[in-house]
Design goal:
The chain is mainly alpha-helical. About 60% of the residues lie in helices and about 5% in strands.
């Protein structure tokens, strides 16, 4: 009984009652089969790679010794450690230096020179801006806004924001100077209509230009200039178009306002509101005109001036009746009401 316990002491039993002896003590497994209770010996043929063979051969070598005694070192672990020793021995400073050099080299390879900007990026942006400024609302022009935004993004990232801003302002200034020159030869009878077309077309173009240049606006104009791109572009229209023609435009608007439907009401409203948006102080040039389209232009009502307000309303009614707007039959409360 004791002999059996001694023999079984070298065996390991798993949960399926398969007995396997340690590989180091014979390399033999004893497996219990389903048909027999007798254990069967199955030899194990390990498949060793080149690395494993070398590891086993080197495992028995003595690698180092000292005065206090000999030391046995596992060659396989040494080989693994030797592969990672270079990486482990590298200091954080050297790794950071390599990353910095790699990033700098990539940045230099992708760097945009001023010549690249002038020959590649700005010509494409200029062409897109031309299409946006002169397009007819009825015409369909295919423009890749994604590509325009990508060009603007690259120019800003490559430190060409100031150059891009100056080119954009110069381009739009040149366009507005041409618009102003075209308005100078327009007959007075068509001037209000042509001015409205120029203003509407420009504001519609800004609805496309400002969004695609939003990256430049955010990281250059707002940050360094403390302004907004749309405000700067609207100021260009004020300086180069509206201000040069306001003295001609206001008298024509007053004349059209005194003669109903000489100019379409929608056109009148668009021009007057546009002028007020460009420069609110222009409302003082014609308060009666602007108060008809812009609320709260006139000062608040004062009780002491109620008689003046009534006289003004009576005058307006007289002017309307003289211009062909009858007041109707005033003998009845309702003109369409029939007597019972």
């Amino acid at each position: 009984m004791e002999d059996m316990e001694e023999e079984s002491s070298g065996l390991n039993d798993d949960h399926n009652h398969n007995y396997c002896e340690n590989r180091a003590s014979g390399q033999v497994h004893f497996l219990r089969t389903e048909l027999s209770n007798e254990p069967q010996t199955l030899p194990i043929f390990p498949v060793l790679g080149t690395r494993d063979v070398a590891a086993q051969e080197n495992h028995t070598k003595i690698c180092s010794s000292s005065s206090s005694g000999s030391k046995f070192v596992d060659s396989d672990s040494n080989s693994v450690n030797s592969e990672t020793s270079e990486t482990d021995s590298a200091s954080p400073a050297s790794i950071a230096g390599k990353l910095t050099l790699n990033s700098a080299s990539k940045f230099l390879m992708n760097a945009m020179t001023e010549e690249d900007y002038r020959t590649t990026y700005w010509p494409n942006l200029e062409k897109a801006i031309d299409h946006l400024l002169i397009q007819n609302p009825m015409d369909h022009i295919s423009i890749s806004y994604e590509q325009i935004y990508s060009y603007v993004y690259k120019c800003v990232c490559q430190q060409h924001s100031e150059l891009l801003y100056k080119d954009l302002m110069l381009k739009i200034t040149t366009h507005l100077q041409q618009v102003s020159s075209d308005l100078q030869i327009v007959p007075p009878g068509n001037f209000i209509e042509h001015f409205n077309i120029a203003l509407t077309q420009y504001t519609d173009a800004l609805q496309c230009i400002v969004p695609v240049f939003i990256y430049m606006n955010k990281f250059y104009i707002e940050t360094k200039l403390n302004r907004h791109l749309r405000e700067d572009l609207m100021k260009l229209f004020t300086d180069h178009v509206a201000e040069k023609h306001v003295n001609t435009l206001i008298p024509l608007l007053l004349e059209a306002h005194s003669m109903p439907f000489q100019v379409r009401p929608s056109t009148m409203a668009s021009v007057v509101k546009g002028l007020y948006t460009l420069r609110p102080d222009w409302a003082h040039l014609a308060p009666a005109l602007f108060s008809g389209f812009i609320p709260q232009i006139n000062p608040p009502t004062v009780e002491s001036q109620l008689s003046d307000y009534a006289a003004h309303d009576q005058k307006l009614q007289m002017e309307l009746s003289q211009n062909g707007f009858p007041r109707g039959d005033q003998s009845r409360k309702r003109a369409s009401e029939e007597s019972a």
